[in-house]
Design goal:
The longest helix is centred in the last third of the chain and has 24 residues. The N and C termini lie far apart (about 50 Å). The chain is of the alpha/beta class and about 260 residues long. It is about 40% helix and about 25% strand. The protein is elongated, with a radius of gyration of 23 Å. The strands form three sheets. A six-stranded mixed β-sheet has the order 2-1-3-8-7-6, with helices on both faces. A three-stranded antiparallel β-sheet has the order 9-11-10.
Length: about 260
C-alpha cells in the first residue's frame, strides 16, 4: 500500500446554509464556493449543499439527514446575537443535548468587549451558548466563537469570519486521497464530442469526465473537457483517450 492509499479514499462533506436572508435574496451567499474550493484542496469531497430558512424544524431535519450521510457537515449562519439566530439551539436539539453557556466563550467575549467597548448583555451572551459536549471554534476576526460537536462544525455566515473559522478547523479534519484533474480544450462543439465522451466514460468507469461549453476568443462555440481521477496513472490514460478521440473528431469535422 502506498503512502497515498493509506488515507481513506474518500472523505465527504456537506454544507448547510441557514438564513431567511439568503432565501429572500437580500444577502448573496459567498461561502459555498469558498468552502467547495477549500474542501477540494484538502482532499474532501463536498457532496451536497442545502439552504434552509430560520425555522427550527427545517434546520434540525436537514442537519440530521446530512450528518448521518456525510463525514462532516459545515453550517453557516445563525449564530449571532439576535432572536432569529437559532442555529445553536437547533444543533443542540439535533444531538439531543442541552445548550450551555460555555465559560471559555464568555471569557473570550469579555476580553473582546474590554478592548472594543460595550457590555456583555443578554444579546451578546447568546453567542456564548454551546451544545453540551461541543468544543469551540476560534474566531480571530470578531471574537464570538463557532463550535464543533460530533461531525458538525458550526460557523458564522459573515464570509471573513467563516473563512477564519475554516482555517482553524482545517488542520483537525481527516482528509482523503485528493482528486486530480486535467482540462483539455476540445476546439469542437459539445455536440461534436458528446457521444464519443460517453464511450470513453463507459470504458473508464472509475474516472470522472465532464464537458463544459464556452464561447472562445473568436466568439464561436467551444468545449472544455475535464477528466478527474484519484489515480494519477488512470488520469493519464483517460486524458490520452480523450486527446486521441479529439484527433478523430477534428478529422471528421474537416472532412465535412
Amino acid at each position: 500500500m502506498t503512502a497515498t492509499s493509506s488515507k481513506p479514499a474518500v472523505v465527504t462533506a456537506a454544507v448547510l446554509v441557514i438564513g431567511d436572508e439568503i432565501l429572500s435574496g437580500r444577502t448573496k451567499d459567498k461561502n459555498i464556493g469558498y468552502i467547495a474550493d477549500y474542501m477540494t484542496a484538502l482532499g474532501i469531497d463536498l457532496k451536497e449543499v442545502r439552504v434552509v430558512s430560520d425555522d427550527e424544524t427545517a434546520i434540525v431535519t436537514a442537519l440530521n439527514a446530512l450528518r448521518s450521510a456525510y463525514d462532516y457537515v459545515f453550517t453557516t449562519g445563525g449564530i449571532g446575537p439576535t432572536h432569529d439566530d437559532i442555529t445553536a439551539d437547533c444543533v443542540a436539539k439535533a444531538f439531543g443535548v442541552e445548550l450551555e453557556f460555555h465559560p471559555d466563550a464568555i471569557a473570550i467575549m469579555k476580553e473582546r468587549i474590554a478592548k472594543a467597548g460595550g457590555e456583555l448583555n443578554e444579546a451578546r451572551m447568546r453567542m456564548t451558548r454551546i451544545p453540551k459536549g461541543g468544543s469551540l471554534v476560534a474566531n480571530k476576526v470578531s471574537g464570538a466563537p463557532g463550535f464543533w460537536i460530533g461531525n458538525v462544525i458550526t460557523m458564522a455566515g459573515i464570509p471573513a469570519v467563516m473563512q477564519a473559522m475554516l482555517d482553524e478547523v482545517a488542520p483537525k479534519l481527516k482528509t482523503g486521497v485528493k482528486m486530480l484533474s486535467e482540462s483539455i480544450r476540445a476546439n469542437a462543439r459539445e455536440g461534436d464530442v458528446g457521444t464519443e465522451l460517453g464511450l470513453i466514460a463507459k470504458a473508464y468507469p472509475d474516472a470522472i469526465i465532464g464537458s463544459y461549453p464556452f464561447t472562445d476568443e473568436q466568439g464561436g462555440p467551444n468545449t472544455h473537457i475535464v477528466v478527474r481521477s484519484r489515480d494519477p496513472e488512470r488520469l493519464k490514460e483517460v486524458k490520452a483517450a480523450v486527446e486521441a478521440m479529439l484527433v478523430t473528431v477534428h478529422a471528421q469535422i474537416a472532412a465535412t
